[in-house]
Structure formats: structure tokens, C-alpha cells
Amino acid sequence: MIVEFMSAMIGHFEMTDLGLMSYFLGIEVTQTDDAIFVSQKKYIGDMLKKFKMEGCKPMLIPVEERLKLEKEGFDMVKDKEIIIEYCHSEEQEEHPSALDSFEDMIAVAEGKKLVLFLDYDGTLSPIVNDPEKAFMSDAMRVAVREVANLFPTAIISGRCIDKVNGFVKLNNVVYAGSHGMDIWTPTGSLKYGQQNKSIDEQGNKVVKFQPAQEFLPTVKEIIQVMEKKIKTFEGAMVEDNRFCVSVHYRNVDEKEVDTLKEMVHSTMKAFPKFCINGGKMVMEIRPSINWNKGRALEYLLDTFGFTGSSDFLPLYIGDDTTDEDAFEV
Ligand SMILES: [Mg+2]
Fold it and tell me: What family is reported (predicted)?
């Protein structure tokens, strides 16, 4: 019927058959044997081009749930991770995927001893709404165990060391909790002070290095104060990470988040020896000492016996802003 109609129209008017419709009034049409799709691919492409985002990473769910990006007060440094992860192609070019250079890494590692450092949350485990349930999968545990059998491996997390240990449950890796402020190694280091010999839960001899030991009473005080103050914020959670404190706001109503942040900042004015760092829907409160995941990595390399050696290649895998300190090292 359509063919008949078309030839009748061509007979009366000056017309050309352009075949299947692919573009009409700015809307693209893709036709297959079983379906007709209407799309705005070109329009979106033009938009991306206009904002210089042609090479941006496509994502099915482009931002984290409840994440709020604001035009006012947008903090380029604080929100950099969000930009890197979700939006801008230039940042992605600056931070390309390591997997794209896997062969180059193998070439660099040739003849060298690999030393592996891993973050926990978001790296070995998924980021979940309840931080107490950030479990790693059995497959991941097997992978880490196998890697740790081949190379010295350490897990450096912001969480308290007991919690990371409880999540990972491997005895062939070394653990560092509290953003590297609580390190337990079999041997310790001769270069550093503040080390105490101890026995871990499995009965193994360990040397504990805790450079923020003197802050412990104040951390406990901060936790007490924060726990009282967050009660008015439904969904907010204070996590005791022994030498640091996390205030999680992932489950807080987004209208309340700014007020919560203000509360944390104003409360911490009474504790000038502490600083606050941002993370993924979390505020990290830490003692302001010259110690971080990067320094922890140096300490661990020393305890692994790599100081003064050049035939090793440290690999650090992490996903959050506090990991940047280790990347720098
Ligand atoms: Mg992480």
C-alpha cells in the first residue's frame, strides 16, 4: 500500500524517494528489521562538543546517588575526584586508565620485584550505603591472596585496622589502618621510632607503628561530641577509625547535608590540631600530622626491605582523594 501511495505521489508531485527515514526535524531515526529507534545522538554530540567533552567516559548511571554538584561554592580541588570520575575528558586524558598501559607496565616491571599496595573501600570492596557492610567478594579475596603469595602486599585503608582485617581475613598481607596511622608489620623498621611489639588476634608477633598515638584521647572525645551532634541528622553516621573519625552522610537527606557539613566544621574549630578531608559522601577527620597514606607506603617499603634498593616496582591501587598522597610518593 505504501509503495502504491508513494508512486502515486511521485506521479503528481516532484518528489524523490530517500529510502528509510533516518533524520526528521532534528530527531534521528534508526530503523532495523524489528524496531524503530528515535534518538538524539547528534544533538547530544553537539552539546558535548560545545562543552569540550567529546571524549568523556560514557556511564549508565552518571553520578552517585544523592550526589549534589553546585554551581555556587563549587570546590575544584575537593570535587576533583568527582570531575575525574564522571565528567571531563581532559581530566581523563590526564589520568588515563592504567589497564590501557598494561603492557608498558609489564615492560617497566621486567626484572623488578613488585610490591603491591591496595586501598580497601571502593578498591577491594564496592562502596555501599552501610559502611559496616562493605564486604569484599570471595573472588576478590582469592585474587588478593594469590597476589600476596607472589609479592609483598599491604592494604592501606582509612578504616580502623581491626575492621579492615575483619573484612579482608587474609594472613599473608600487611595491614595499615587509619589512613596509614596504624601499621602492623611482622618486622617493623629500624629507621622509625614509636614502634611497639605486640601480638595480633591470630597470635602472630607484630610491630605496631602508630605515629598519632598521642591524639587517641582527643579522637575519642571528638567521637563522643560528634555522636551527640549528628543525632539531629537522620541517616548520618560517625565511624570510629581509631586514629581518625569518619562522618558519613551518604544516607542523609540532601537538603540537610550542607547543615551537617557546617556543623562538623564548626565543631572541629574546638579541635585545632585536627583537619577535615572530603571523601566519597564522607568527611574524614584526622590529626594534623605529617603522616598519610604516602608516608605509610614509604614506611612499609622500608619494613619490606626495599630502602636503598632500586630493583623494585611499587604499585598502588586506590580510588579516593586520600590515595593521592600515595600516588605522589
Ligand atoms: Mg577507597
Answer: Belongs to the trehalose phosphatase family.
